[in-house]
Amino acid sequence: MAQIQAANLTFAYEGSPDNIFENVSFCVDTDWKLGLIGRNGKGKTTFLQLLAGKYDYSGKITAPAGFDYFPYEVTDIQRKECASDFLEMLKPGCEEWRVMRELARLDMDPGVLYQPFEHLSHGQQTRLLLAVLFSGEQDFLLIDEPTNHLDQESRECVKKYLQGKKGYILVSHDRDLLDACADHVLVLNRKTIQVQSGNFSQWWEDKSRKDSFARKENEKHLKEIASLKRAADQSSRWAEKNESMKIGYDPIENPDHYLGTRAYIGAKTKKMQSRVTQYKRRMERAIEEKEGLLQDIENPAALKLNPLTFHKERLITCRDLSVRYGKDGKDVLKGFCFELMQGERVFLHGGNGCGKSTFIKTLLKYGKTGTFFTDGTGEHVEKDEKAMPMISQGELMAASNLVISYINQDTRCLHGDVRDFCEQQGLEESLFFALLRKLDMEREQFTKKLEDFSEGQKKKVLIAASLLTPAHVYIWDEPLNYVDVFSRIQLEELLLKYKPTMILVEHDVRFRERIATRVAEM
Question: What mean pLDDT is predicted for residues 192-205?
C-alpha cells in the first residue's frame, strides 16, 4: 500500500491576490476510494489538475504512481471519428482489448468503439471514456463529476462500476454516489483540509455532531467572556475609586480616614488591580479557546422565494402530445399526456433522449398568447426558433397570463459580469448580490467575467435569477449539475418551506425524494 503526500502545497492563479491553497499538507493511500467534497469555488477541480501536473505550485507532492484525469478532452475532429481511432491520443499506451474488457463491465457493447463518437448518447460517451480511464493498471485516477447530465440508468451503471474499483479520487456532489463509492473523504473545509474514513453520510453525521458541539462551546465561551468583562469593569471601577481616597479626605464625612490608612488603601487598591489583571488574562485565554471553533462550520443562510398564486388550480395540460424538430424530422416525443396543478412539484423522469427537455422547450414555445416566459438568458425563448421543437400531433395548453421562471441546463448563455447580467434580466443589483452571497459566492467573484466562473457558480447565478423572479410556475432543467452539496441542501429547505409550483428535471435521487410531490415517467 503506497501513499500520496502533499506538503506545504500553495497555489494561486496568475493575477489573483488570494491563494486557492496555502501551506496545505495531507496524506492519502493509493488504494482508497476517496471522495473529494467542498463548496463551489473551493478548488476541487484545481486540486485534481495540480496532481495531474497542469499548473505550477509551491510545496511538494510525492506519489508512487502517475495520475490520469477524467473527463478527457475530445476535440471536434475526434468527435467525428470512431473512438478506436483516437484511444492512444486520450491515454498513451492504451490497449483496445483492455477498453473492451471495461466496456463489458459497464454493460456496453464493445461495438461503440467503432461508431462515430458524436453519434453516441451522452451516457454512452461518459461510460466509454471511463472504460478508457480504467484500462490502465498503474495510474491513480482523478475523476471529476462523472455523472453530470446522465440519466438515472446511466448513473446507476457508473455507480455500480465504481463500487468495484479502487485507487481514485472522485469529485461529486451526488450524495448517493458518494455514499456508494467512497470509503474515505477528503474535505476542503472553509479554513482547513480534513481526511476521514467513511462515506459522505458518515462524514456528514460526524460533522453535524462536531458543529453542534462547537456552537455550544462557542456560546459557553461568549457567556464566560461577558461575565469576566463585567467583573473586570467592576473591579477596575472599585480600584479607581479606592485609589482616589488615598490623598485628601473630609474628616467629617470620613472620620475613620487618617494619614496611617493610606498604606492600607494602597494595598487594597493593588489587590483589586491584580484581580483586574487576572480577569483580563482569563478573558484572553477564553478568547483564544473560542478562536477557530466556528472556522469550518457551515451556516447556510435561509433563502426566500415569492411564488405567485394563480386564480385557477389547473395550470398546464397536454394530451397525446407528439413533438419533432423541423418539419421533416422524426417525432422525439410521442403521445405524451401531462397536467400540472397548482402547488405540485413534478419531476420529469426518464432516460437521456426520452424527451424531457423537448417537452419543456415545447411548453415554453407553445404557451397561450399572453403567457410570459423568462429563461435566465435575458431573452425570451420564442426568439430562438431554430432550436425550438414543433408540435406534430396533440394539444398543449397553459393558463393565460401564466408567469414562468425557467432555468436552462446550458450555461453557455452567460457573458459579461454579474452587473451586466442583472441589467439584462432587470434584477435589483443589491438583492441579487445578497442572494449570491447567501449561496456562498465570494464578493471577489462579482468583478470577474461570468465566463471565468466555475460551472457550479454559473448554475448559482441562474438559480439566483430564478429565485428573484416572482412566478406562478418554476421550470428547472437539471439545475443542480455542478452545484455543491451544501447548496443542494439549502435549496431543499427553501422549496419545502415555500412550496412553489414546479416542473423539474433532476437526477439527484436524494433531492427528488425530498422535493417531489409527483414523478411523471416519460
Answer: 94
Helix (H) or strand (E) holding 505: strand 502-505
Helix (H, G, I), strand (E, B) or coil at 403: strand
Q: For residues 217 and 289, what is the distance between their CA atoms, to the nearest angstrom?
A: 9
CB 272 within 8 A of CB 242: yes
3-state SS, one letter per residue, for 291-334: CCCCCCCCCCCCCCCCCCCCCCCEEEEEEEEEEECCCCCCEEEE
Q: Is the pLDDT of residue 462 over 70?
A: yes
Omega within 30 of 0 (cis) for the link into 307: no
- The 3-state secondary structure of 332-383 reads EEEEEEEEEECCCEEEEECCCCCCHHHHHHHHHHHCCCCCEEECCCCCCHHH
The burial of 15, by beta-carbon neighbours within 10 Å (0-12 exposed, 13-18 middle, 19 or more buried), is given as: exposed
Q: Which three cell numbers stand for residue 429?
A: 443589483
- As beta bridge partners, residue 6 has 26, 61
Residues in CB range of 399: below 8 A, 6 or more apart: 310, 312, 314, 315, 316, 368, 371, 472
Q: What order of strands is seen across the sheet that includes strand 3-11?
A: 21-29, 3-11, 58-62
Helix, strand, coil percentages (3-state) for the chain, rounded to 5, are 40, 20, 35
Q: pLDDT > 70: what percent of the chain? A: 87
pTM metric for this prediction: 0.79
Q: Cβ contacts of residue 161 below 8 Å, gap of 6+? A: 105, 106, 127, 130
Pairing of strands 67-70, 140-144: parallel
Angle between helices 485-498 and 455-467 (to 10 degrees): 10
Dihedral-angle region of residue 3 (phi above 0 means left; psi in -120 to 50 means alpha; beta otherwise): beta
Instruction: List CB contacts of 4: < 8 A, sequence separation 6 or more.
Output: 27, 28, 29, 30, 51, 61, 62, 63, 64, 140
Whole-angstrom CA distances from 198 to 32, 35, 207 are: 11, 9, 12
Tell me which DSSP letter residue 54 carries.
-
List pLDDT tens digits, range 56-82.
999 999 998 899 999 999 999 999 999
Q: What is the pLDDT of residues 97-118, one digit of tens each?
A: 999 999 999 999 999 999 999 9
Amino acid at position 292, single letter: G
Tell me the C-alpha to C-alpha distance, in Å, between residue 64 and each of 57, 226, 315, 491: 19, 53, 60, 41
3-state secondary structure (DSSP) of residue 497 = helix
Q: What's the grid cell of residue 139?
A: 495510474
| Average of per-residue pLDDT across 16-37 | 89
Write the burial class of residue 31 (CB in 10 Å: 0-12 exposed, 13-18 middle, 19+ buried).
Answer: middle
- Edge-to-edge strand ranges of the sheet holding 168-171: 67-70, 140-144, 168-171, 33-38, 184-188, 193-197
Residue with the bigger pLDDT between 137 and 272: it is 137
Q: pLDDT > 90: what percent of the chain?
A: 59
**Residue 259 parent element (H or E):** none
